[in-house]
Design goal:
Elements (H helix, E strand, L loop, with lengths): L1 E6 L5 E4 L5 E4 L5 H11 L3 E9 L9 H9 L3 E10 L5 E3 L9 E8 L3 E8 L7 E5 L4 E5 L5 E9 L2 E9 L6 H13 L6 E6 L6 H6 L2 E2 L16 E6 L5 E7 L8 E6 L1
Parallel strand pairs: 1-4, 12-13
Antiparallel strand pairs: 1-17, 2-3, 4-7, 5-6, 5-7, 8-11, 9-10, 11-12, 13-15, 14-15, 16-17
Helix pairs in contact: 1-2
């Protein structure tokens, strides 16, 4: 079984300038590059973050559906966390916004899903000040809502719960959100796989959750990664690890984190 967590960055890609430094390309997202990336990863279970649905910047496509078709998923779930475009105009997602553009996380599987669960995470203040030491000034920002999605899978190893989340980048608040996820998962039977972009690195996710990391590789920034923001953690006895790696692809500013299990 191959498990992958991948921050899509909405399907955007990094291109090269003539001086060989990365340049962000935010317009004209190529859906074929996204399909090719998913086919290359060949996941059995795929956790995605920063996923667009009906956004103009991503050709109004449903990126979770694009990925599901590319990998041959039998079931998947997209969980919108906001309506609109992050970094621009957005609001809390809800039934009234379903016809417009949305943004969130997704979990996809080649194995049957017996149950889905959505878990909203503790909200932050609509706007707040953050100290930027490099600039030596405070910056007022608005933080987007966060969530987790839980899939109860029937796999060759038996029942398995996989949890995908994308935590805030705000220091301290990401710890509180990960603690909330860990508490909520206390009611689930082992084994549990907790994956996603935690926006924290080092041993902190292991210390907060008590779960065992299955892959230790830097994943960000994609060109020359120097820290691991993306994680795959296991609680309880699970399948054995065959291999793990961080894969650079034609899309995203993150590398995909891959674990092969047997």
């Amino acid at each position: 079984m191959r498990l992958v967590t991948f921050n899509l960055w909405s399907g955007r890609s990094l291109t090269k300038k003539t001086d060989d430094r990365p340049r962000r390309r935010t317009k004209g997202i190529d859906l074929e590059l996204l399909r090719a990336a998913i086919i290359e990863l060949d996941p059995d279970v795929l956790a995605l973050q920063e996923v667009d649905r009906r956004q103009s910047r991503s050709q109004h496509a449903d990126l979770a559906q694009v990925a599901a078709e590319a990998m041959g998923a039998v079931d998947y779930r997209f969980v919108p966390t906001l309506a609109g475009t992050p970094g621009a105009l957005w609001s809390l997602s809800g039934p009234a916004h379903r016809a417009g553009g949305e943004y969130g996380i997704a979990l996809l599987s080649r194995y049957p899903v017996t149950q889905w669960q959505d878990l909203p995470l503790p909200a932050l203040r609509p706007s707040f000040k953050v100290m930027l030491p490099v600039m030596r000034q405070h910056l007022t920002v608005g933080e987007e809502p966060r969530a987790a999605v839980i899939a109860h899978l029937q796999t060759p190893f038996g029942p398995l719960a996989v949890v995908n989340t994308h935590l805030t980048w705000v220091p301290g608040s990401s710890i509180r959100q990960l603690q909330e996820v860990t508490r909520a998962l206390g009611q689930l039977s082992d084994p549990v796989l907790l994956v996603g972009d935690f926006n924290m690195w080092g041993a902190l996710p292991r210390r907060i959750t008590g779960y065992r990391p299955l892959a230790v590789h830097p994943t960000y920034p994609a060109a020359k990664p120097n820290r691991q923001l993306d994680h795959i953690l296991l609680r309880g006895r699970g399948p054995e690890i065959v291999a793990s790696r961080a894969v650079s692809l034609a899309v995203s500013d993150h590398r995909a984190l891959v674990v092969d299990l047997t």
